[in-house]
Design a protein that fits this description.
11% strand; 310 residues; 5-stranded parallel sheet; disordered N terminus; 48% helix
């Protein structure tokens, strides 16, 4: 009887999207345009993400386990940390591409940039209200929505805490299943901790692939919680342990930069120009000054450098 009434109501609305939204708001099975390519994600991570063994393993395991669970007990919440140009945004686009078939073009992938969406620290109350309604409205339309929050180091503290009820082990809030959503936070906060561990490992002759996530995750959590420039400053999301995994991104070596350059060249049909890739690697600035191990900008400047040498 309920289904018949719903069908009559939806028919009167006259649009498939509204019908889908109503169905999704009461159903655990609505998948929107959800069409995950698990093998494609795993291959993309290992083929195109350079120098990030921890990110490859953590993201692959977390996303695959979450997607394969038809009845997760809470949303998947990933917090990506590291210096600029190390692959954080690349990973978020990979997740979107292999879940909805497009990096950012799906109506079910939502990206927030603090300098654009939350620019003023004086309007936290308004931002909280806007964000809460935006997330709930989109989850009503699609329980499998993906929310990406970039540049969390520029997010006014207090705004993101409005999402605390959405990130916990709640089955239904406001008649909507919130447990199938994915939240991705991207931040440079914590890079000092990550870079220090990478440097100490290098100086000790330890292979970077031997660095374990357990060595960094607690320190990253402390860094984002105590940093006044972090959107998670004194956030209950941290104290209530609502982040599924903190994902460290290590600083990149010259060989990683050259692989980024080689990929860029191949995308331009110039795969054979190994000389250009080598020149790009040599043109980067490396730190620390006395040993020149890590690219100070990761792979961020690679496209511009390729233009220069090609």
């Amino acid at each position: 009887m309920i289904f018949i009434l719903l069908l009559i109501y939806c028919t009167s609305l006259g649009t498939g999207f509204e019908m889908k939204s109503i169905f999704c708001s009461i159903s655990d099975s609505c998948d929107c345009d959800f069409k995950p390519d698990i093998k494609g994600l795993e291959w993309d991570l290992y083929k195109n993400l350079y120098g990030q063994h921890m990110a490859q393993d953590i993201v692959s395991e977390a996303v695959v386990n979450f997607i394969q669970n038809e009845n997760p007990d809470r949303p998947l919440v990933l917090s990506l940390h590291g210096a600029s140009g190390t692959g954080k945004s690349l990973v978020s686009s990979m997740i979107g591409r292999h879940i909805y078939g497009t990096a950012m073009g799906s109506p079910y992938i939502h990206q927030f940039v603090p300098t654009l969406h939350f620019p003023s620290a004086d309007r936290v109350k308004q931002y909280r209200s806007d964000l809460k309604h935006w997330v709930e409205r989109n989850l009503t339309a699609c329980a499998r929505s993906i929310f990406i929050f970039d540049e969390m180091e520029k997010m006014p503290p207090g705004v993101i805490d409005v999402l605390e009820p959405h990130l916990g082990p709640f089955h239904v809030l406001f008649q909507t299943n919130y447990r199938k959503a994915i939240y991705i936070f991207i931040s440079t906060v914590g890079q000092e901790v990550i870079n220090r561990v990478a440097l100490e490992s290098r100086q000790a002759g330890r292979d970077r692939e031997d660095i374990l996530p357990e060595e960094l995750e607690e320190s990253i959590a402390d860094a984002v919680y105590n940093n006044k420039n972090s959107g998670f400053y004194h956030s209950r999301i941290i104290t209530e342990k609502l982040i599924t995994r903190f994902v460290p991104f290590l600083p990149l070596l010259r060989r990683h930069v050259e692989r980024c350059a080689q990929r860029e060249l191949c995308q331009r049909g110039e795969c054979q120009r190994a000389d250009v890739a080598s020149s790009v690697g040599g043109a980067m600035t490396y730190t620390p000054n006395d040993s020149q191990y890590f690219s100070s900008t990761g792979c961020k400047l690679v496209p511009a450098k390729v233009n220069l040498f090609l």
